[in-house]
Design brief:
InterPro entries: KFase/CYL, KFase_sf. This protein is of the alpha/beta class and 292 residues long. The chain has helices at 2-18, 107-112, 120-130, 152-155, 174-183, 205-212, 268-291; strands at residues 23-27, 46-54, 60-67, 75-77, 98-105, 117-118, 137-142, 171-172, 186-191, 216-219, 230-238, 246-256. The strands form 3 sheets. It has a 7-stranded mixed beta barrel with strand order 4-10-9-7-5-11-12. Strands 2-3 form a two-stranded antiparallel sheet. It binds zinc ion. Residues 71, 75, 77, 219, 246 line the site of zinc ion.
């Protein structure tokens, strides 16, 4: 009879866990290819097929060579990019490349003004909806610009791709970055445009402030409409380039699926607790049975 009780209890727990252990993963990365957006002056992307076919032994083999600028497509700006003696790519701590996603939606403002710079008020508006920006956040501007990618003329919003003084795209305001650094704790500041500074910057004040504070940037982030403005966890998996000033990154978000098969809702720690129970209870029941 007691054994039946255990089986029933475990079945109920498995039923609860069964519908709920998942989280959704969303890719926030543009393909790295010969259409990748580069800052003007960078060498061209080089993708060379070394082998794509059957070897003499009849085995299928694919191998390629690729050469790319660090600051290309979806990528990380290491703090050293615009500030001396700050972290280069290989020594940015991995824990500084993970954090709660804070997505600042300025699509309407950017549609009206391509030179828009994210303001402190935009952050306060986010906080009025979702509470204080969480510790170690990854804060990314969603200006809607990722939809232009990879059309370089639209992304840089110019007829003269070799002349940065003609660029018009949105970015962060330097005052907003200073506020984020002094009033909140952030791991990465990102944009869906080619630069954390807006296109018309003369002094790259945002890059310099972030570098000075040893905070990384993320540029050309894709697909931001596919994640909630609050509640995701973002990962900036940059290639670990020794002494790099940045590097291509696979940026992605996880979104916990909190709804169980019964429609209950709860957070990830409760899922872990239930999972542990699912494992432990049959073991304890088994040990008790053997002890008898
Ligand atoms: Zn960059």
């Amino acid at each position: 009879m007691r054994q039946h009780t255990h089986v029933l209890f475990v079945s109920v727990l498995l039923g609860i866990c069964g519908g709920s252990l998942d989280f959704k993963v969303v890719d926030l990365t543009h393909d790295h290819s010969n259409t990748t957006i580069y800052w003007p002056g960078s060498p061209e992307y080089n993708f060379t097929i070394l082998s794509r076919g059957k070897t003499a032994g009849g085995i299928w083999l694919e191998m390629n060579y690729f050469g790319t600028a660090e600051h290309a497509g979806t990528h990380l700006d290491s703090p050293a990019h615009f500030y001396k003696d700050r972290n280069r790519t290989h020594n940015v701590p991995l824990e500084n490349l993970i954090g709660p996603g804070v997505i600042i939606n300025v699509k309407n403002k950017a549609a009206m003004n391509a030179d828009y710079q994210v303001s402190i008020d935009d952050l306060k508006q986010w906080e009025s909806m979702y509470n204080k920006i969480p510790e170690n956040a990854i804060v990314i501007m969603n200006s809607g610009w990722h939809e232009h990618y990879p059309n370089a003329s639209l992304v840089f919003n110019t007829d003269s791709l070799t002349d940065p003084s003609t660029f018009h795209f949105p970015g962060w305001h330097e005052d907003t970055i200073e506020w984020l650094i002094s009033e909140r704790s952030v791991n990465v500041v990102g944009v869906d445009t080619p630069s954390t500074d807006f296109g018309q910057t003369q002094n790259f004040a945002v890059h310099i402030s972030l570098g000075k504070a040893n905070i990384s940037g993320a540029e050309n982030v894709a697909n931001l409409d596919a994640i909630p403005e609050s509640g995701s966890m973002i990962f900036v998996a940059v290639t670990k380039i020794y002494d790099g000033s940045g590097g291509p990154a696979r940026i992605f978000a996880t979104i916990p699926l909190r709804v169980t098969s019964f429609g209950w809702t709860y957070g990830p720690s409760f899922v872990l607790f239930l999972s542990a129970l699912c494992v432990l209870i049959p073991v304890i029941a088994h040990l008790r049975q053997r002890a008898r």
